[in-house]
Design a protein that fits this description.
mainly alpha
């Protein structure tokens, strides 16, 4: 199959599904003659209306900055810690139960503590993003170390390589695909959490975004469901782009060997 044909097989099926869902949405709204729920075209018009509002891009930038800060800190902590816990048996036995106890706690449950510790400002959502994304990356990195095929380690041992060379030339390249999976999970949760945190504790960002439209505020936003759904779609599209940007790491030469079929 040619390169263009391969691209079409990746693009066409999801586009067909999306168009089908939009058509079903349109038919259901028209058939029910709903005066509340908007049609897809009304939502598109709402998105254009939001785009004309100058504050939208400022709020998007504020949310992305917070996600980048919190996720970057989580990456710097989670990956080295996950490698250490996965490589050192004593560290795994000691710390893993603690992290497994903290991991299921919803990031939203940390909001009161974040406000108490950091106040109402940028530090609170950054802390929540850190908490929400550090555990998926750390657990995935640890699991990646544990699932390394022993033949790689035995082959390195046969050449008499040192422990540090073994760790840098064998362990880390073998774990990179798992780290990328953890990054994809972490960035998705981080984007979800930043919107929730901004709705509660901030006046900037997509979670706190209110268009400059007459009579449009938190009390009567329900009168403009087209803008509500348009905002939801914008959030989803940005989340999709964040996931896609993370998947670009899969194309690195040190990672692609795990995806060869």
């Amino acid at each position: 199959m040619s390169a263009s044909g391969a691209r079409l097989t990746k693009i066409v099926p999801p586009m067909v599904v999306i168009l089908f869902l939009i058509a079903m949405w349109w038919i259901v709204v028209v058939k029910n003659d709903s005066a509340i729920f908007p049609t897809p075209w009304q939502v598109v018009a709402g998105m254009l209306e939001l785009g004309q509002d100058g504050t939208l891009w400022e709020h998007i930038g504020a949310s992305l900055l917070r996600v980048g800060s919190g996720f970057g800190l989580a990456f710097l902590v989670a990956v080295p810690l996950g490698l250490w816990i996965g490589w050192v048996g004593g560290a795994y036995r000691t710390l893993n139960p603690i992290f497994q106890m903290l991991r299921p706690i919803s990031p939203i449950a940390w909001i009161p503590i974040a406000i108490l510790w950091f106040g109402v400002g940028d530090l609170s959502p950054i802390f929540l993003i850190f908490i929400s994304s550090v555990f998926p990356m750390m657990v995935q990195t640890t699991a990646g170390v544990h699932t390394i095929e022993r033949r790689y380690l035995r082959a390195a041992a046969n050449f008499g390589v040192s422990r540090w060379v073994l760790f840098g030339r064998v362990v880390i390249p073998a774990v990179l695909p798992e780290i990328i999976v953890g990054m994809r999970i972490g960035i998705g949760v981080a984007w979800l959490v930043v919107v929730a945190a901004e709705m509660i504790a901030l006046r900037s960002g997509l979670g706190a975004f209110r268009p400059r439209i007459p009579n449009m505020d938190s009390r009567n936003a329900g009168n403009r469901y087209d803008l509500v759904i348009a905002s939801m779609i914008i959030i989803g599209m940005i989340g999709l782009m964040l996931d896609g940007s993370t998947r670009l790491f899969e194309r690195l030469k040190t990672v692609r060997w795990r995806y060869v079929r």
